[in-house]
Design brief:
Layout lengths: L17 E6 L9 E5 H14 L7 E4 L6 H13 L2 E4 L5 H11 L3 E4 L1 H8 L5 H6 L2 E4 L6 H10 L4 E6 L8 E3 L10 E5 L3 E6 L12 E7 L10 H7 E3 L12 E11 L5 E6 L4 E3 L2 E3 L1 H10 L3 E11 L3 E10 L6 H11 L8 E4 L14 H8 L9
Parallel strand pairs: 3-4, 3-5, 5-6, 6-7, 18-19
Antiparallel strand pairs: 1-2, 7-8, 8-9, 9-14, 10-11, 11-13, 12-13, 13-14, 15-16, 17-18
């Protein structure tokens, strides 16, 4: 006998209903499930497709996992533009380049460790001719890597972007600004406002470091089953009109940035990543950029490890580019380009790739655990 059916009409899905839960990479803490609504996902897809000028004739190569918001973006932006998404589970970086050439790929997204590898390879003419744009997010692309890619792909427009899972994407630097501002993460994407504020929520002056706050339709609905963490990160937007009866929530990113006189933003570091040594707060990104600038390093990660005299000691792990790259050579290079308190106390040369998390980013937690005992004689 058939069960009696429920006569109630099924609930209709609307734009603010939950559509997906995407987990943060967990690079600085336990991964958190970010709740995205239908509105979040559509608004993000249309915004990114807008500034990338995605078209029906585009063929977008998806090599990043769809569990990663940046990876899922390749699929959603293709859908809203009526373009084709080509899925690929690659084994070696050269396979990516071969697929770009074979499939006539016009758009390619990757994270910095992958771009570092791709920049060291030869790009055939067919790949260089078809690739209309490339995008980078998930960390700063080293200047040397970007320069190598631009030499290999002279007709490809590079878009440098910044995003966080809690708001999908926040900023992009238009390609014609790269030569003027190679270190900038650009300005807000369409349909978003990006603020740089002090701890009390007041706006920072140009050049003054502050926290990046994202407001707009891409702001997620919080962390799944975690009201405490949600309250930490999703807070009232600064500068709201006091006449508004309902409080607008924004994402307080936890990332430190600064804006120049023209409003272009520059990433300084994550609060969780900042190294606290000898009374100074040091951005790992600045140290890594100097290491890449040596021309001897394929991958680099700077971090702090416990040290009773310094609080934290600055150390770095690197994968060398070619033979003959030694620790003393790299430390001397750092001494020429960094103040003393930022020079790594030790540089660990690793023959293979640095550890990755599931999203392809360098896994700083794993590295910190591996390097924690570098100074056992100083342990408290």
């Amino acid at each position: 006998m058939l069960a009696v059916s429920d006569s109630r009409r099924p609930a209709r899905a609307i734009d603010v209903d939950m559509a997906a839960i995407l987990y943060t990479s967990g690079s600085t803490g336990k991964p958190k499930g970010v709740i995205l609504s239908h509105r979040n996902m559509l608004s993000g897809a249309f915004s990114v497709a807008d500034y990338l000028d995605n078209r029906p004739e585009d063929r977008i190569l998806a090599v990043l996992p769809f569990s990663f918001d940046y990876g899922l973006s390749q699929l959603t932006t293709a859908f809203v533009a009526g373009a084709r998404a080509v899925l690929m589970d690659y084994l070696l970086p050269r396979d990516v380049i071969a697929t770009v050439a074979r499939e006539g790929i016009t758009g390619l997204a990757a994270v910095p460790p992958m771009w570092v590898q791709l920049a060291q390879l030869d790009w055939p003419a067919a790949a260089a001719d078809s690739l209309r744009y490339l995008t980078n997010s998930g960390g700063a692309m080293p200047r040397a890597t970007l320069a190598a890619l631009r030499r290999a792909l002279p007709h490809t427009a590079p878009f440098l972007m910044y995003g966080l899972t809690e708001a999908f994407r926040s900023t992009y630097l238009y390609p014609d600004q790269i030569d003027r501002r190679p270190d900038s993460i650009g300005k807000a994407i369409p349909n978003a406002e990006i603020l740089v504020v002090r701890e009390d929520g007041t706006p920072c002056a140009p050049g003054e470091p502050g926290e990046l706050v994202h407001r707009g339709s891409l702001v997620a609905q919080g962390y799944w089953n975690d009201p405490a963490k949600t309250a930490e990160r999703f807070r009232p937007a600064p500068g709201q009109n006091p006449g508004l009866p309902l409080t607008e929530l924004a994402v307080w990113s936890g990332d430190t940035v600064r804006a120049d006189e023209e409003g272009f933003l520059y990433f300084i570091g994550r609060k969780d990543d900042m190294i606290k040594t000898s009374g100074y707060r040091v951005s790992p990104t600045e140290i890594e950029e100097v290491l890449y600038g040596s021309g001897r390093v394929a991958e680099a990660a700077a971090l702090g490890v416990p040290h009773p005299a310094l609080g934290q000691a600055v150390v770095a792990a690197v994968k060398p580019l070619g033979e003959g790259c030694g620790e003393s050579e790299l430390i001397n290079h750092c001494k020429q380009h960094l103040p003393n308190f930022m020079v790594p106390l030790q540089i660990v040369i690793r023959p293979g790739d640095l550890p990755r998390n599931p999203n392809g980013k360098i896994d700083r937690k794993a590295l910190a655990g591996a390097l924690r005992d570098l100074f056992p004689e100083n342990a408290a």
